[in-house]
Specification:
The protein is mainly alpha-helical and about 400 residues long. About 85% of the residues lie in helices and about 0% in strands. It is globular. The chain starts with a helix and ends in a 9-residue tail after the last helix.
């Protein structure tokens, strides 16, 4: 019953990230091949989404804490529907490249608005319906919904673009956004208690930042695999880069489904420590791989390691703030994965340009290992609760 209740709320996450996934794989090709801009321009336009996502995370957290999650989810769905309209317009203007690109910039910014408003709102909605003791489960299921939606949405977008054109994706995004809006509208609104001990968003961000920095360091490993694994395979002269992406995703989901209870049993920080060192091990194997199968194994181990990094650190971060600030805490904590994914492309690209493609996963391994060391320091300095604290 509890699982079904949580799934009923994280379904909004799936809806939002499915619309993101639809356009994610086809927009760079559209910008490069149809509009005639280089790969750097395409990359910048795609990354603009994270700017507004970053800016509106705090705004969403404040809405959730003051008025409940439903208003934030509704506004997020409006943002996604609006981005679909703009995407369709950009497609119609494809014969005027500069104007089409300008509309695409607005599209990506509005997509980021939708993602920022959606953010952790479904998690908060689920917790208001089930109780704080299910924090780890809600965060875990929400992550499965987001990564699963991206994994399904991307190939669907490619098929639609090839058969019906980019405009059809815009129309589908509008339809999904409107559907998500009315789905949320019919959900029972829930609201937490607003207490006098409620802190400002900046104060909350300061409290969760140590855990957020650990998350950002661990997230760079995921970002480097999702962004550069194809180029890495091409450099090595291998085929089947998509298998490594699949191995990462499958082991990620398996890790969340099978080991999510470890967070309650052993504690958030101990779980994060094990996960980060496992992720670093997977990246090490990927770096030293001499065959595509060895690389796939490394990617899978990295996915298994990363699977519980977000929920395990997130549980610890939320505990550091009053109950009336949980929406802001999850929003502020989520900022760090946005920041991590935003800087991964240029940072790993700079490593590849300066030292060669061969060393991008050695660098990623080192960054994730720094996250492991930081988690150890935080664990040592904090008064760690006993197992079963949730």
């Amino acid at each position: 019953m509890v699982r079904l209740t949580i799934l009923g709320f994280v379904a909004f996450t799936f809806i939002g990230y499915f619309t993101i996934g639809l356009a994610l794989a086809v927009l760079p090709v559209f910008i490069h091949q149809q509009l005639g801009y280089n790969a750097m321009v395409a990359g910048v336009v795609i990354s603009l989404q994270y700017v507004t996502t970053f800016l509106f995370r705090g705004y969403a957290g404040n809405i959730v804490d003051k008025r409940g999650p439903r208003p934030a989810v509704l506004r997020g769905m409006v943002g996604f529907a609006g981005s679909g309209i703009l995407l369709f317009v950009a497609y119609l203007l494809r014969h005027i490249p500069a104007l089409s690109l300008g509309v695409l910039v607005a599209t990506r910014l509005l997509t980021g608005f939708g993602e920022g408003l959606l953010g952790a709102s479904p998690i908060n909605w689920a917790l208001l319906a089930t109780g704080d003791e299910y924090t780890a489960k809600a965060i875990s299921y929400n992550g499965i919904a987001s990564y699963g939606a991206l994994a399904v949405g991307a190939p669907c977008g490619v098929i639609m673009e090839r058969t019906l054109g980019l405009g059809s994706i815009g129309i589908l995004i509008v339809a999904i956004g409107v559907m998500g809006f009315f789905f949320a509208k019919n959900k029972r609104p829930l609201k937490g208690k607003v207490n006098k001990d409620r802190h400002s968003f900046l104060s909350v961000l300061k409290k969760v930042s140590p855990y957020g920095v650990c998350l950002a360091l661990g997230g760079l490993g995921f970002g480097s695999i999702s962004t550069f694994i194809t180029l890495y395979y091409n450099y090595a002269g291998w085929q089947g880069a998509v298998l490594s992406l699949s191995a990462f995703s499958i082991l990620f989901i398996i890790g969340r489904l099978l080991f999510e209870s470890f967070i309650n049993t052993y504690g958030g920080l101990p779980t994060a420590i094990v996960c980060l060192v496992t992720e670093a091990l997977g990246l090490c194997i990927l770096w030293l791989a001499t065959t595509p199968h060895m690389a796939m194994t490394g990617a899978g181990i990295a996915g298994l390691g990363f699977s519980l990094v977000f929920p395990s650190l997130g549980v610890e971060a939320v505990k550091r703030v009053p109950a009336s600030n949980k929406g802001a805490a999850l929003a502020g904590y989520g900022l760090f994965i946005d920041l991590s994914l935003f800087i991964t492309g240029p940072l790993i690209g700079a490593v590849a340009g300066s030292f060669g493609m061969r060393y991008i996963y050695a660098f990623s391994m080192g960054i994730v290992f720094l996250g492991f060391l930081l988690a150890l320091v935080i664990h040592k300095q904090s008064a760690s609760p006993r197992p079963g604290y949730i």
